[in-house]
Design brief:
FAD/NAD(P)-binding domain, eight-stranded mixed sheet, 11 helices, globular
Length: 419
């Protein structure tokens, strides 16, 4: 008796919307669509959300979205830190950059929370809806097409290949998006003069609690208060990671110690390069976010600079707009490509404005600081905000709320299971 060597036929699933990527944009979109009565499948290639050095900022406009969904109180019951102001140091001189207490939002602070806790919360809420399915360990490998239209995705799961057919595929799979590449969507690169080396250092109560950025000749160093530790970002010139590593770990520790706002001996905690992660910064955006049957949002549509930590907020705003615009036509089986194009029409302008502001900060502040060998002089804008503190509301608005913030308007059409 012979044993067939043919591969097993892929498992077949059908849904109204297949979301690729279980990050902030993907899970928020899945929750909003399920709440609006749309059958949705989210494919996440990992088994869990435990990846370090991801963006951990939940902005005031995102907290407004949580309030729209009736989830704000339970969400804020999770462990988090609240940042009401952002401070910058030019050499050793402090400047208040943003004051979120001046905003008119419901929550006048940025919530710092590990992204895995945020994603676990959103996934848990989405899974209360019977029309929502989250498939973990399901890595999308390509798109399914029929007569020139995307009709689903192919994925690789633990049990074997999966084919998911859908009225719409939404790529939320980040800046290295498989959906974006498979759909042949063309991007334009805006450039970034820096990369970021991420690592942790322990935090003591005597360190203070301010999340801050420090600008000095040849370096930019950012510390984010994560309770019992500091999440640290050491900015380096673009492509400079190899040169930094070649100088050795001790030289890197010394460079960090010169900029650390707390006890410099704590850099001895960096015992290996394995404790340092490299974020290769890219700023780009798609010229067109869609093709027939497929749409990209979030980082898959526009990779953001880490400046201001606004990438997560922008991705969530994309998800809210997508659900507001597409939930009804998806649910009613009348989705047309003109509906899908409305997402880019709504979200491209805030993306362009935000990226333009980020590029200005990169070119006028970050790049000169990294290239400088002389003591830095505080920019005029910082000196002006010190003289007129009310001006700190402007960067607070840009960072905390963003350009054209979205609120949930898609009505609830499905009932969640009780807690």
């Amino acid at each position: 008796m012979s044993v067939s060597s043919e591969p097993a036929a892929p498992a077949a699933l059908a849904t109204q919307c297949c979301v690729v990527g279980g990050g902030p944009a993907g899970l928020m979109l899945g929750l909003l669509l399920a709440r609006a009565g749309v059958d949705v499948v989210v494919l996440e290639k990992h088994a869990d959300f435990l990846r370090d050095f991801r963006g951990d900022t939940i902005h005031p406009s995102t907290l407004d979205v949580m309030a729209d969904l009736g989830l704000l109180k339970r969400f804020l019951d999770l462990p988090h830190q609240e940042v009401e102001t952002l401070t910058g140091f030019v050499e050793d001189e402090p400047f208040r950059i943003a004051d979120f207490r001046r905003l008119s939002t419901r929550c006048r602070f940025i919530a710092l929370m590990p992204q895995w806790d945020f994603l676990d919360f959103i996934a848990g809420e989405a899974e209360r809806y019977p029309n929502f399915r989250l498939l973990r360990r399901a890595e999308t490998t390509g798109l399914i097409r029929r007569e020139g239209r995307v009709t689903g995705v192919e994925a690789r799961a633990e049990a074997g290949p999966i084919a998911v057919t859908a009225d719409l595929v939404v790529g939320c799979d980040g800046r290295r998006s498989t959906v974006r590449q498979s759909a042949g969507l063309e991007s334009e690169t805006l450039g970034a003069p820096m990369d970021v080396m991420w690592f942790r250092l322990s935090r003591e109560p005597t360190d203070g609690d301010a999340t801050a950025g420090r600008f000095s000749a040849g370096a930019v160093f950012v510390t984010i208060n994560r309770g019992d530790y500091w999440q640290c970002a050491y900015l380096i010139p673009k492509g400079g990671a190899i040169a930094v590593r070649q100088k050795g770990l001790e030289a890197f520790r010394q460079a960090v110690a010169r900029r650390a706002p707390f006890a410099p001996e704590r850099v001895a905690e960096l015992a290996s390069w394995d404790q340092v992660s490299l974020l290769t910064v890219a700023v780009d955006r798609l010229k067109r976010w869609d093709r027939p049957g497929v749409l990209c949002i979030g980082d898959a549509a526009h990779a953001m600079s880490p400046i201001g930590g606004v990438g997560i907020n922008l991705a969530i705003q994309d998800a809210v707009a997508t659900a507001n615009l597409l939930a009804a036509p998806l649910r009613e089986g009348r989705l047309g490509q003109e509906d899908v194009r409305r997402v880019q029409a709504r979200r491209e302008w805030p993306t362009r404005v935000t990226q333009a502001l980020q590029v200005q900060v990169q070119n006028r502040i970050i790049s000169p600081a990294l290239a400088s060998g002389d003591r830095l002089t505080p920019p005029f804008a910082l000196r002006l905000m010190r003289r007129f503190p009310a001006l700190t509301r402007i960067p607070a608005r840009i960072v905390g709320v963003g350009v054209r913030p979205e609120r949930v308007t898609a009505p609830a059409a499905a009932s969640p299971r009780p807690l």
